[in-house]
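#data-curation
PF: Archiving a pair of folding outputs for the training set. Convention for this channel: one message per protein, sequence first, structure tokens after, nothing in between. First:
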Amino acid sequence: MVKEECKALLDALNKVTACYRHMVLTIGGTSDSQNLREELKKTRQKAQELAVANRNKLTAVLKDKTVSKEDKAEFERLWVIFSTCLEILEIDMRRALELGHEFPLNVPKKHLIQTGMSGGTSGVAARAMSVQNMKYEAEHNIDVVDLKDLENEINQVGEMMYEMEMKVNVPQWTVEAKQDPGAELKSTISVGASSIGMISVEENKSFCDISKVLAGIIFSAVLIIAIVLAVCVVKLS
């Protein structure tokens, strides 16, 4: 039960973090607005709430001495995924802070990035946080006020990561993956297709090897003929 709860929290955190990154990339673009800044604020706060819940659940389980070896290995894997997700969130928050300083909404003369993207981002945030019809009452200088809050929240995330390392020491290099990269995307059909692809690749490789041998022979013959001609020219002269 606890394992399923941790996986559900981690899945939600991944989705919200991905949503936050998507919206951060639109700062300074043609779709930038006060609504976007407010959506960014609510999305990152949602991510931090999920991060705290993840941390509390995983910390309690990993400190429990009665957990079996197999379960502990699984929780350690989830812990590594959670730590990586939190690092990504911190990076994106710092990026949002830098872009917010570069493209303040209260300076209309500041030229924004022409990304070619247009339209609102409320739909993306709503899908990630399972909220419908997100409506915000943006303040006049929400970007200016929010940058100060963002700096404090970045420090809080950094402190959280430091406390996590102090409470639970799970080196990433000691955790083994349960499956190969991209294994969840594979199926019986894709495996069959990949096998056919491997056969065709091997055939192409053998064909390429023969071509290389023939090319080498032709090049050697041309080189010998050139040498012979050069010697003949020297003797005739």
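PF: Second:
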Amino acid sequence: MAYDRYVAICKPLRYTVLVNRTVCHVLVGASWGGGFLHGITVFALTIKLPFCGLNILDNFFCDVRQLAKLACANTYTVELLMFLNNGIVIVTCFVLLISYTVLLLKLQTHSTKAKKKITSTCVSHIVVVFVMFGPAIYIYVLPFQAVPVEKVVALFHTVIFPLTNPIIYTLCNKEIKSSMWKLVCKYLLQCRLFKKYFEVNK
């Protein structure tokens, strides 16, 4: 998405050449491949761990860090490798946001109308990235110790923020914003009429 927005705003006349079907396939394949490689790496690190005793996780979902704590062996190396693996993924995603920095710097040379368009296009994606990766950084930045309020952060990271993701993106759409505004106005009008009705009947 960062590459797509960069080309659409900085090189609009070459968009169809720079963002063709092949490029889209490569970008999607790289995203899927990176996710698969990350998952397989974490799986390979935890599959050989010896487990004994109570297998009760101190969380509401099966996180790799929680799983490593249940192992009966020394997990220092495993936790270090998981920390490096997660760190590489998170840092890579933030490095890819450099194209947004370029876009925001180019805002100075555009007109007010273009600035609004660029801002509405990019801000939603930047917000989603920070909202999704902020808790991930908080959880995985300290690999060898318990993180305060880890369960609360994990709840937001796995449940709350993914629910807000579509809302953040749809609020940038003019049609949806106008429809929501109409619904709110209609609701407020009904509330006022309802209130007046009760006041009259009293």
